Structures are given as structure tokens and as C-alpha cells.
Amino acid sequence: MGAPEVLRVLDALEAAGVRTGVTGGWGIDALLRRETRTHGDIDLGVTSDAVDAAIAALRRHGYAIATDERPARVVLNGRDGKVDLHPIVMLPSGAGVQTGFNGQTFDYPPGSLEAEGEIGGRLVRCATPALQLAFHRGYPPREHDRQDMAALAEDFDVTLEPPYSG
Predict the structure, then answer these.
(1) What distance in Å separates the CA atoms of residue 57 and residue 21, rounded to the nearest whole number?
(2) What are the pLDDT digits (tens) for 117-129?
(3) CATH number for the 3-156 domain, one of 1.10.10.60, 3.40.50.150, 3.30.460.40, 3.40.50.720?
(4) Residue 125's closest CA among 16, 54, 57, 30?
(5) pTM > 0.90: yes or no
């Protein structure tokens, strides 16, 4: 999924009034302000009450639900890529919680989807380096995860923990 399609998806969601934050591999590339690798999808944090509006907006742009695993995620396939929506229940404090699988939860501290990044020469909202690091804990890293974390550590002077360190 190339940068032009990512921007088309973000534009469609923004036009529908759906506020998102880019996470995953594109979120790291947004923070780095450069495309470091090929991406098969875009991961987006979206408030749980906006998921249906996001789905409707993406349907108008040729996307269809491939996997609906709410409350954990909804994956939509399109001709030029996949969109992985991660529903977040927002709390009065400004923090958010995403339900995962098997009882997992993922915490979004206030402002953690408000970092400024860049994709295709355009500014976008994305996950903070701290949120990216937190989301890469707890599972065996793939090679692209190792590369993503190394690039993040280099550009943002963050300390990596096992299994990403040493």
C-alpha cells in the first residue's frame, strides 16, 4: 500500500469527520518522515463510536470488510491495499483503551495519537514514539519489526528493550 493510497484513505476519513491516528509500520514511517519499507496495509486508531462512519466512508472508496473482529479490529480490503481499523474507547481523562484478543487491552495515554508525522510530503497525525514502543512489546518480533524499532531508536534517541536490544 503506497503513500498515495494512504493519503486517499486519510482524506476519505477526514472528509467523513473521522479523526484517526496512524499506527503500525506507516505510523513509524510517518514519525521518521520517510518511507523505509513496503507496507501491505495501514493501521489506524479510531474512536469506537466512529468505526461505522469510517467503514461507510471507506466503502464509498471501494473498500469492503474482510474481517470484522470487533471490538478488537476491523480489516477492510481495497484494490490498492488494506485498512486495519483499531477501535479505541475514549475515557473522560483523554486516555483510551483498545480491546485486543484473549483478554488483552492496549492503553493509549492522552495525546498518544497526536504526534506529527509525514507521509508523501504531507503532515499526518500518528502514534508517538512511546506508543509505538509500547505496542511492539509482548510478541516475538518479525524482521521488519526489528528494522522499524532500530530506525525509531536511531531517529528519536530511545532505548530499546529485549527482544529489540542487543
Answers:
(1) 16
(2) 999 999 999 999 9
(3) 3.30.460.40
(4) 30
(5) yes
